[in-house]
């Protein structure tokens, strides 16, 4: 039953090759979709190009449904799937910082690495800035460690928060997702009068 420990199943060297191939494939797909271009990414904040929102939200929905089905038929033990512990207050602050950085820089961490890999100078500078920020955070986190661990909710999922069965949450999110994707197209056409994503 999944998830498998590839280091044990394949050995460290072959597992590392698998991880490298997955990372390369993910980056290749992002670049092929145009997500290494900061102008295209930033256009979503002006509702001019909603491809990023559509692709990422669709990927989240597909992964969610796949995990739900795999758990339901016994291929996957959901309790063994790693879910980051939730620390509410630093999570909110970190989300705001990343969101502002995304708007100003035009990249999120993953897309900045894709852009840097194709030698886009704005992405290279974004990655350099992120590296400085990460290093600075690592050197100073001890000064605000109490805040860093505040709002500890442990493994806290959407179904925990809503108090509903997993199947109802999955169905609800799929319905909301389909409506949102349809509405995003309508909004763009209403604002700009055409259907082409630029």
Search tags:
globular; mainly alpha; 2 domains; two-stranded antiparallel ribbon; 198 residues
Descriptive overview:
This protein is mostly helical. It has 2 domains: 33-82 and 158-198; 84-156, no CATH class. Helices cover 69% and strands 3% of the residues. Strands 1-2 form a two-stranded antiparallel sheet.
Give a short summary of the structure.
By secondary structure, this protein is an all-alpha fold. It is about 70% helix and about 5% strand.
Q: Write down the Rg.
A: 19 Å
Q: Which percent range fits the helix content?
A: 55-70%
Write down how many β-strands occur, each being a DSSP E stretch of 2 or more residues. Answer: 2
Q: Structural class, judged by helices and strands?
A: mainly alpha
SSE diagram, text form:
Elements: H1 6-10, H2 12-32, H3 38-42, H4 51-72, E1 86-87, H5 88-105, H6 109-117, H7 121-140, H8 145-148, E2 152-154, H9 158-162, H10 166-192
Antiparallel strand pairs: 1-2
């Amino acid at each position: 039953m999944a998830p498998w420990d590839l280091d044990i199943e394949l050995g460290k060297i072959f597992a590392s090759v698998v991880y490298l191939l997955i990372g390369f494939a993910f980056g290749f797909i992002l670049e092929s979709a145009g997500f290494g271009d900061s102008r295209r990414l930033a256009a979503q904040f002006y509702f001019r190009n909603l491809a990023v929102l559509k692709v990422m939200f669709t990927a989240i929905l597909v992964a969610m449904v796949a995990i739900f089905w795999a758990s339901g038929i016994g291929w996957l033990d959901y309790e063994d799937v790693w879910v980051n512990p939730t620390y509410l207050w630093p999570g909110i602050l970190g989300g705001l910082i990343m969101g502002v950085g995304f708007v100003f820089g035009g990249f999120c961490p993953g897309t900045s690495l894709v852009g840097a890999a194709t030698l886009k100078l704005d992405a290279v500078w974004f990655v350099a800035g992120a590296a400085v920020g990460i290093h600075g955070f690592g050197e100073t986190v001890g000064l605000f460690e109490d805040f860093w661990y505040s709002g500890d909710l442990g493994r806290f999922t959407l179904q925990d928060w809503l108090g509903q069965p997993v199947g109802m949450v999955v169905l609800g999110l799929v319905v909301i997702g389909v409506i949102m994707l349809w509405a995003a197209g309508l909004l763009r056409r209403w604002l700009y009068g055409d259907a082409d994503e630029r």
